[in-house]
């Protein structure tokens, strides 16, 4: 009895699954639901296609926003201007609007890069006068520097993050 019931269940499931798959090809609205395209509709869609942007505006806006990944230390107002320009670019509907918005977005991205690079240059310039520690990845120079000052830590010059003693906690920072 159990074998016959399972055969019936498997058969019903098979018919149900194949019936569902077969129904996917059918148009649920019927053949008469879609109106035939008129000459006026075709002309309107051709005009819209002719005036549409010639590039993917969303991809261009996304590409501009990747600028912030490498230049996030630009001033907030400059970053905001890039974001606003990219949103205007996303909202464009015509080729002329898209071209103008793309130029504005590129200009805003250039401004972000320039602002971040200027900020970085100012940090390098400001630290050049006070930083005597060697930089550039030369491990031997770093170790030589640490050994030079290991017993002569000047907490007045470098600060002391350890209030209980003047050890060399700042050398790693």
Structure, described:
The chain is an all-alpha fold and 173 residues long. The chain folds into 2 domains: 48-131; 134-172, no CATH class. Helices cover 65% and strands 0% of the residues. The chain contains 8 helices and no strands. The radius of gyration is 34 Å and the shape is flat. The mean pLDDT is 74.
* DSSP E strands, number: 0
Order of helices and strands: HHHHHHHH
Instruction: Report the C-alpha radius of gyration, rounded.
Output: 34 Å
What distance separates the N and C termini? Answer: 79 Å
Number of domains: 2
The secondary-structure class comes to mainly alpha
Multimerization state: single chain
Mean pLDDT across all amino acids: 74
Task: Jot down its keywords.
173 residues; mainly alpha; 8 helices; 0% strand; Putative amidase-like protein
Structural topology:
Elements: H1 2-23, H2 39-51, H3 57-65, H4 67-70, H5 76-90, H6 95-128, H7 139-149, H8 155-158
Helix pairs in contact: 3-5, 3-6, 5-6
Précis, in short:
The chain is mainly alpha-helical.
